[in-house]
Each structure stands twice: as structure tokens, then as C-alpha cells.
Amino acid sequence: MNIVADHIRKVAVPAILYACLALSCARASSSIDSTNKHAWTENIGWVNAAPTNGGVNVFFNGTVGYLKGLAWGENIGWIKLGNDSGGPYTNSSSTDWGVNLDVAGKLTGFAWGENVGWIKFDSAYSVVTIDMQTGLFFGDAWGENIGWVRLRGTAPDYNVRTLAFDKQSQGTPNWWLTYYDVTEDYDAGDGVSAWKKYVMDANPKVQGDYLRITAISNLPPATVTFFSSARRYYTLQRCEDIQTGVWTNIVTQAGNPGLSSLQDATATTPQFYRVEVRVTP
After folding, report:
1. How far, in Å, are 10, 164, 171, 180, 256 from residue 177 at the CA level?
2. Is residue 187, in this structure, part of any structural domain at all?
């Protein structure tokens, strides 16, 4: 989706500040899909990642993440995905262990079962991953005492899938809403909904934290300066007659942490300008 920052002004060559965005809705938990929740081991049978009195949760902040909670094996009891303090975990002591998630979806570290011992998610022969588009787990974890724990298989078909990367109606992923503990329509008091702040890569709980133009030059080449994020993409757009609403893309680039600038070196007459932000190019 897109978003635009409102700020209209016509100057010697360019000058509208318009920042575009688009997304919104109710928040869902980043737990395991109740219809896709089983792993299998030859030696201990089925392991349920979303049992009635437990459940595995996936937490992510856009850069790093971790798993937490309890899975259940009818023949082995509870398997714990991380210590109570939460991750990311160092896996260096009896009080700091668990399963971590990196930005590419790779899982590392250990789970623990009182009856089966340690289960490693990144062994020498298999690394468990999560597809961040579908939420599906792939690969096998390894337990010295139970063998391979397979997260996906056939005959019968089974898999484990997290809802963390599912999106709400305006396109905001569940992991982001869970991380900030908001719904898509949450407003910190500045009139900008949380789903829009996701597109802007802004903090939905901080009033005034949103895409906005800070300066526009009066001389060619027209230069528009705005707050940006290194994880978003920005397009400078211009319009000669604001009443027609015909906008032309001038240049697109990745943002920087803090302030960024975009220039229009081709305009020969006064123009209106706006900046559009996108999550992807």
C-alpha cells in the first residue's frame, strides 16, 4: 500500500509535500494456526504446537525474533521453546536459552522437554526455517533422545504454521501489531492510524511520529526533504495543476535513517510535489 504526507505549497519550481500511505484493521495473535499445528517424530509420535493449555508463539520486530511457549507431545509431555524471560536468547546458560528467529526466517537455538532433554533447531544436518510469506515451518529439529522432529510432511499431510506473518485487512502483519500491542486503527492522538504508521515505519504509540516533509526549496532543482526510514522506499511525485490530480513519478529511492531528500531537476515551471512511501520498491 502507499501513503502520502499532506503539505501543499507551490514554489518557484516545485512544492507540495504530500506523503502517501495505505493499510488497516483488528489485531490477531501471532500464535500457531489451529488447523496447521502438528509436527511428527518416528520415536514419540505427534507434537502439537497449539494445544489447549499451551501454545507456541512467534515474536518478531522486523529484524530479529524468537519463539516462546509450550508444545505438547502425548507420549512425552511439554516441550518449552524458551525460558520465561523471553528472547532473543543467548543459549549460554541454564536461565537464558530458547529458539531464536533471524530476519531471513532461520531458527537457531534449543527447546527443552523434561522427559526428552534438549531439541536443537539448527543441527549440522538440518536447519528449521519459517517462510515469512506463508508462515510455514520447514526442516527438522534434532533431539539426542528422540531423533528428528519433522515440522512438515506428507501421507498424511501435516505442517506447523504461524499466524505471525499473516496480514490484517489494511495489510499490516500480525507480528508488527503484536510487537506494539495495537490494532490497525489505533491512534496515538495525532490522527494517523497505526496501519499507516506501519507503512511509514513509524512508532504507532508515539504522537507525531509519522512521514512528513520538513523543507522544500524555492530554486531549481526542486528539493524536498522529509523524515524517512532505511527500511522503506520513497517516490517524489509532481503535479502541475492540483485540481486535475494528475501526479507524475519523478524519482524513487530507498530512505535513510532520519532525513532524506529527493530532487526534481527536470521541471521548468512551478509544480506541486508530494512524497509517497512504500514498504517495497
Report:
1. 37, 9, 11, 5, 24
2. no
Instruction: Reply yes or no: is the peptide bond before residue 270 cis, omega within 30 of 0.
Output: no
The answer on 53 and 15 residing in a single domain is no
The answer to whether residue 96 sits within a structural domain is yes
Q: How far apart are CA 146 and CA 271, in angstroms?
A: 69
Residue 63 lies in a domain: yes
User: For 73-107, what is each residue's pLDDT tens digit?
Assistant: 999 999 999 999 899 999 999 999 999 999 999 99
Give every CB contact of residue 213 below 8 A, 6+ residues apart in sequence: 5, 7, 17, 18, 19, 224, 225, 226, 275
- β-pairing verdict for 272-278 and 19-20: parallel
The total number of structural domains in the chain stands at 2
Instruction: Give CA–CA dist 14/183, Å, rounded.
Output: 37
Half-sphere exposure of 250 (CA within 13 A, CB side): 24
272 close to 237: Cβ distance less than 8 angstroms: no
> Does residue 238 sit in the same domain as residue 268?
yes
Residues 6+ apart with CB under 8 A from 94: none
Count the residues in the chain: 281
One domain, residues 77 and 144? yes
Q: Give the pLDDT mean for 43-63.
A: 95
Find where cell 522437554 sits: 113
Is 152 within 8 Å of 136 (Cβ atoms)? Answer: yes
φ, ψ of residue 68 to 5 degrees: the values are -155, 155
pTM for the predicted model, two decimal places: 0.86
Range of the domain at 44: 32-162
For 211-237, what is the HEC assignment?
CCEEEECCCCCEEEEEEECCCCEEEEE
